Structures are given as C-alpha cells and as structure tokens.
C-alpha cells in the first residue's frame, strides 16, 4: 500500500489562506468487521445496526460471502457516530445530522430545549442532595407546551393535591397522551407575593402538559416558550410562601417585569412521590419575564 499524499495549494490571495487537499491512492487498506469493531471498541452487531440505520456503508461487500470490508473513512465515521451518541443524540438523529438531512434551525432549537430540561433537572437534583443551600434563583427558559387545563379551588394544600390528582386521573381517562418531559404546573388566579391559605379559598388553573391533539372542543391551552425568573427550593410545603416572597422581591430588585402570571411547578406530584420524605420535596416557582436587564 502506498502512502496517502497531502498537498498544499499556493496561497489564496483573496482569503490569505493555504488550502490543504488530500490525494487518495488507488489502493487503500481495507479492514474486516472484526478489526473495525476492535479499533472502535464496539460490537459487530453495533456496526451492522449502523448499516441498518443508513449511517454506515461498508467500502465493499463480497457478493459471494457477504463479508464486509471497511476503509479508514468508515472508521472515522464510526468515531463521529460515537461522539454524537455521547452528546445524547438518538440513532436516527445521528444519521440525519451526519448526512445533513435536518433543518438546522429546528435541530438547534430542539437540542437547546433538551439541554434546558437537563439543566433544570440537575439543578433540582443538586439542591435536594447537596443541601448546601435551601434555595437557588436563576434564569430559565420554559419550553412551549400544550396543556390540558382545568380550574381548581382549594382551601388547603391537601385539598389542592387531591383535586390535582383527580384532574390528572380524568386527563388520562379521556385518552390524552402525557408529555412526560414536562411537569404539571399551577397558575394562581390571585396576584400575590405570599401563598398562604389560612383557611381561605384559593383559585388556580391546573395545567397538565400533553401531546397536542387537533380535536376541537377540548380543554387545551397553549403556552409559548418564554424566559423566566425561577426559584428552586426543597423542604416541607410550608416553605412555598417564602419562596414566592423571595422570588417577587428578587424580580423587583433586578428591575424585571412579569409578562405572565407566575407558575407553581410540581416537580414531583405528591401522589407520585410517596417514597420521598416531606422534608425532601422540591418546589419551583417561576415568573415569565418580558426582558432581562442583568445577569446572575
């Protein structure tokens, strides 16, 4: 096998750069599936699955034996696949991205939303398990969601949890498909800084994220993506009024203006987190904002 030749063209005066080009020899080394699997640290079946997904095409397949032979470009393509896989992309996403079969703007937006969801989860997990501080305030981007919505009136947290359970149960019974990537949330109808029941009734809109259903006449509500100021805290439910108070105070101190009513996000619904101790519950209050004039 002859060496591959790398040439460098003369200086391009318009760009001020040299352009490197490769001249591939007519005879190149081919590798067996076993050699490629060993070089890339993967199994033979994984290589075959890449071929089934339309990502990898062997340099040559023996028509008589069916043996596959790969060149170095195949090997480096597998490396790119592994890199994108480590970034959390699905098999289809990897193939479509590698061969530029995606809408770049749509792809970037989808990945940013995934990154935002992951960051929100990590913030919650760190707060609950690190316990270095009781709360944290940050800017977040709330993704666009379509929700099954219903009005709830309750005079205590326990009643609110019960009514939320019944509404969630009804949503499932009516055939809606839950959007598991987003938690349900409540929108208090009264403008307030402190959420205190004190035996009085409070009205809120319960919103359960679902996969959009085009059928008319159903109680669905669309929320566009928005930037928001968020406070995350953990402990018993009694800390929630203080979280709201801190959030509104901080929002005023930053000179921010709310664009929509605040949302109380149920990171773990009470009826879904029976294995959590009451003092380990994590709560998030957010206020969508019009603009941001400072940074953390």
Brief summary:
Helices cover 33% and strands 23% of the residues. With 296 residues, the protein is an alpha+beta fold. It starts with a strand and ends in an 8-residue tail after the last strand.
Characterization of this structure:
The chain is α+β, with helices and mostly antiparallel strands and 296 residues long. It has two domains: 5-98, Multidrug-efflux Transporter Regulator, Chain: A, Domain 2 (Orthogonal Bundle), CATH 1.10.1660.10; 112-288, Regulatory factor, effector binding domain (Multidrug-efflux Transporter 1 Regulator Bmrr, Chain A, Alpha-Beta Barrel). Helices cover 33% and strands 23% of the residues. It has helices at residues 33-40, 44-52, 72-86, 91-98, 104-130, 157-173, 240-253, and strands at 5-8, 20-23, 31-32, 60-61, 68-70, 135-142, 145-154, 185-188, 202-210, 220-223, 226-234, 263-265, 282-288. The chain has an eight-stranded antiparallel sheet with strand order 6-11-13-12-8-9-7-10, with helices on both faces. Strands 3-5-4 form a three-stranded antiparallel sheet.
What is the string of helix and strand elements? EEEHHEEHHHEEHEEEEHEE
CATH topology group of the largest domain: Multidrug-efflux Transporter 1 Regulator Bmrr, Chain A
Strand order of the largest sheet: 6-11-13-12-8-9-7-10
Main beta sheet, described?
Answer: 8 strands, antiparallel
End-to-end Cα distance, whole Å, is 59 Å
Q: Can you say what the CATH homologous superfamily of the largest domain is? A: Regulatory factor, effector binding domain
Structural class by secondary-structure content: alpha+beta
Question: In angstroms, what is the radius of gyration?
Answer: 27 Å
Q: What is the CATH class name of the largest domain?
A: Alpha Beta
Oligomer: single chain
Mean pLDDT: 81
The percentage helix is 25-40%
Shape: elongated
**What CATH architecture label of the largest domain applies?**
Alpha-Beta Barrel
How many extended strands?
A: 13
């Amino acid at each position: 096998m002859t060496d591959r030749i790398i040439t460098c063209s003369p200086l391009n005066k318009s760009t001020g750069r040299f352009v490197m080009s490769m001249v591939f020899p007519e005879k190149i080394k081919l590798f067996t599936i076993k050699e490629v699997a060993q070089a890339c640290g993967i199994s033979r079946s994984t290589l075959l699955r890449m071929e089934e997904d339309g990502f990898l095409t062997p340099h040559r397949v023996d028509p008589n034996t069916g043996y596959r032979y790969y060149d170095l470009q195949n090997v480096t393509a597998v490396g790119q696949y592994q890199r994108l896989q480590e970034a959390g992309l699905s098999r289809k996403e990897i193939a479509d991205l590698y061969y530029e079969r995606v809408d770049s703007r749509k792809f970037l937006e989808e990945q940013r939303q995934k990154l935002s969801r992951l960051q929100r989860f990590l913030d919650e997990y760190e707060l609950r398990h690190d316990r270095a501080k009781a709360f944290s305030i940050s800017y977040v981007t709330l993704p666009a969601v379509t929700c099954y919505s219903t009005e709830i009136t309750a005079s205590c947290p326990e009643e609110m949890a019960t009514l939320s359970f019944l509404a969630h149960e009804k949503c499932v019974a009516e055939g809606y498909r839950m959007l598991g990537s987003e938690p349900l949330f409540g929108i208090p109808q009264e403008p307030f800084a402190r959420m205190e029941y004190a035996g009085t009734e409070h009205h809120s809109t319960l919103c359960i994220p679902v996969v959009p259903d085009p059928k008319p006449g159903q109680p669905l509500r669309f929320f566009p993506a928005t930037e928001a100021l968020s406070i995350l805290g953990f402990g018993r439910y009694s800390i929630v009024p203080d979280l709201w108070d801190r959030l509104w105070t901080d929002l005023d101190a930053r000179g921010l203006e709310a664009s929509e009513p605040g949302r109380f996000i149920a990171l773990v619904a009470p009826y879904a987190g029976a294995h959590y101790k009451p003092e380990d519950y994590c709560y998030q209050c957010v206020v969508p904002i019009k603009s941001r004039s400072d940074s953390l």
